[in-house]
UniProtKB/TrEMBL annotation:
Lineage: Bacteria, Pseudomonadati, Bacteroidota, Cytophagia, Cytophagales
InterPro entries (UniProt xref): Cyt_c_oxidase_su4_prok
Transmembrane segments: 30-53, 60-82
Subcellular location(s) of the protein: Cell membrane
Superkingdom classification of source: Bacteria
Alphabetic keyword roster: Cell membrane, Membrane, Transmembrane, Transmembrane helix
Main location as per UniProt: membrane
Name of protein: Cytochrome C oxidase subunit IV family protein
Membrane topology: Multi-pass membrane protein
Amino acid sequence: MKNPLLISLLILLGLTMLTAIIANLEAQGTMLAAICIMAIAAAKFLIVAYQFMELKIAHAFWKTTVFFFCILVAGIVGFFSVV
């Protein structure tokens, strides 16, 4: 398994299954579940952006901008999903 795209795909599938497990736990609706789900969503977004959209070879400005945008959106959505 030296193909990085296949490894990324398997990681994304595993994170998706983990999100489904967290969503079906009894901790549903709590702030911890929302934070965990949004953190997993942010990780999946960054994997897709850096691996499949080839952001890893982009200019440093775009790398940092996408990273901080991801953190900002995940934080806002995670905060307002609990309120």
